[in-house]
């Protein structure tokens, strides 16, 4: 459900995005995220016993990819994590009627081929499910395996909220319910090729700075491929095995990866590789009339189409030269036909509104609206028969930690999503304008596919870290999930704002299969660990600790190597001796402080999700912050604060010489800077 800039490393953040794109709850159940369409209670409860039996209907166990059994295995592992007191019996394959499970309480997963679930526009969806709870069984029946998957999320979120509210054991109200999404999309849109936009470098007369401007292509062809030169930063790209693993992880959590290779604009990385393809005066545009351009683009898709399991891909196709409208439209339509014939996949493009009087984009192509007035007007596109996705930037754009002049927020604007649409109503995918109701449509518009919100990272690969992306997205993904599953003012059971606010913290903390909050249970009090005395190196059993935290130590480097080696290291970050430099996601962020070699220096590293700073020798009045320096549109440089997880797994190493003593890592209550 998100759009992502290619230069953001998302692999670590992925599992969170999958789990919070889930469904749950209804009026008589604990409100969950997203809300449930219907639940009718009956007498009794289903008590989750200490030994849990999960059964899968043997008739459908191997149906689908992922299969019903695949989803059941993931559900089993998730259930153990969310409800620690349970012991899980092996999954059984069964043909029994659920009523015959006595005396063993059973969670039964099956399909119902006769069930029909529809989106708001009447189109069928495989993501619907129904569930029935009795004193002895909890039965989830989906239209397809992915529907059952969402049904298991309902069960897990009910369990998580029950425990968060103090229950010692989990029970579910007896009754029956059903749910399905209002719109069809449940995707991670992966914008996998682009460049920094620096007008002086790109368009300055006689300027060849474009040759060195940061640009990247994220899919890495095999060694020896004719495309090898397309990927200048191999350590910032996915090899086929890595991408397939990520794609399979997404699919196994009900999420489809939609890859995007952006052409004919945003194509600097291609033109840096093959300058002859460049449009004169526009190094980030392809020259579509040059004989080798389109065959080259087709060769790129030939290489990577076999990687992609989705039935649809994006070719980008936005912000191209309006004077070349016919060339652009001809290219888009040709690529649609080519990709369709080559892989049986359809394509989507960003809305562009190229002003041709003689040609038009094929209606087989989905248009992803993102901007007024440069884009086609969505209601007009819908009326012409185009299928449309809502990514209107006024509601749905984020742009890293430092957005120029506050153009976009750091998180989705919750006030806007709850009540900022015309008439004080909440946002939903049918709302494109916050001020003009005539630019909006009804929730059941026939060709409205849904919505995608975007996080762009325009300021370079040093502008953020993988965990900072998670901190920025976590709550926004959950709120967006409610709005694109149920909508606003559509379902009577849709969440109210106070219900969302109450449910989110517990669900975020309980999300299984990951620990992107990097929560570690303190050893005692608020202390994660402490090691009195002096040490040259040691290992701990704590790989990383998320903010807010304080890491305290004293250090005295050897005079012969005062700036060599590591002070601390963990899975998310490392702290180098030299200039007290943090390293995260392959980037270096120096504090600029040189440790003296003739004495011990006391250091306290404190972090929140917004910043990290150091107190040197107890000087609370002069905190020293870790920053990054970002080039904003090539116009000016801007400082941004950095937040780092504590590098808690090892002490010393990497050539470090000297002593580190009195190490103490604690969880902070507020984590705020000194006054």
Automatic annotation (TrEMBL):
Pfam families, alphabetized: Glyco_hydro_20, Glyco_hydro_20b
Keywords assigned: Glycosidase, Hydrolase, Signal
EC number: 3.2.1.52
Domain of life, source organism: Eukaryota
GO molecular function, a single term: beta-N-acetylhexosaminidase activity
Catalytic activity: Hydrolysis of terminal non-reducing N-acetyl-D-hexosamine residues in N-acetyl-beta-D-hexosaminides
Domain Beta-hexosaminidase bacterial type N-terminal: 33-157
GO biological process, one term: carbohydrate metabolic process
Record domain Glycoside hydrolase family 20 catalytic: where: 233-321, 330-486
Group of enzyme by EC: hydrolase
Signal peptide: 1-26
Protein family: Belongs to the glycosyl hydrolase 20 family.
Protein name (Swiss-Prot/TrEMBL): beta-N-acetylhexosaminidase
